[in-house]
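Listing S7. Sequence submitted for prediction.
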Amino acid sequence: MSTGFIKIFAGTESKYLAEQIAQNAGMELGKSCCPRFSDGEFEPCYEETIRGSFTFIVQSTFPPADNLLELLFMIDAAKRASSYKIIAVMPYFGFARQDRKDRPRVSIGAKVVADMLSVAGIDRLITMDLHADQIQGFFDVPVDHLSAVALFVPYIQKMGLKDIMVASPDVGGTKRANVFAKHLKTDLVICHKLRSKANQVDSMTLIGDVEGKDVIIIDDIIDTAGTVTKAADVMKAKGARSVRAFATHAVLSGPAYERIEASSLDELLVTDSIPLARTSSKITVISCAPLFADVIQKVYENKSISTAFI
């Protein structure tokens, strides 16, 4: 049995999600504030005692970078307030696409973020669908890497689709899509894309047959939506009956919403790890709060969470 008591707090931009997580865990969200100076500087503060507590801090680090800095300050404040254990809960781990040095003179941003979190004082990290699994190795503290499989697969099974085909929008996402294919007991097709620069797909080739199929495209991040909408258009052109995309993190920047509305996608399903900037008739949100609430409770009680892993 754990010796400390449990507290859940929220960063400013993830309060909507933290409130749901706390509710699903049968708790009240901890009281905190983040006053700002006129120049934009901010100072997070806990408004109740956390001495000796298991302090879970919920904050996704999507743009702007203030979300990451606020999380770091909250971790430092918890450490200085004598919290027993500090656990960063990052449904969306920003900068995860910078997981390696893929060209000269660039940083490995994910490693820098990992170092900052460690130096700030976390004892554990809970996150979901990292862009690259190896980011877990950037930390010297335990990393609980959850998967949206636990959310998406039951949802897909209840949709009653006749002839499902799982698809990966690129070669790099094959492993992730293959996990879904195994759970759904179906085959897998792959899109091979060529880029001249980031966020721009020049051409795409489909590897596999989708004629007459209800295609499920699986991805971790949907940013400008260029890849997934082009994949949907290609699959519809190849005879797919329907095309839906499931993406864990809805970054949805730039022309993403316009591309989704104009595309051949029948539906885009995402989690609420990042709040939507606006609503769309084609976008459905599935809450990840129950998953995180369950894992937080199990971490506190030292119970197994293996069912939430990829």
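Caption to Listing S7: primary sequence and predicted structure tokens for the chain studied. The chain has a mean pLDDT of 94. Residues 66-80 form the longest helix (15 residues).
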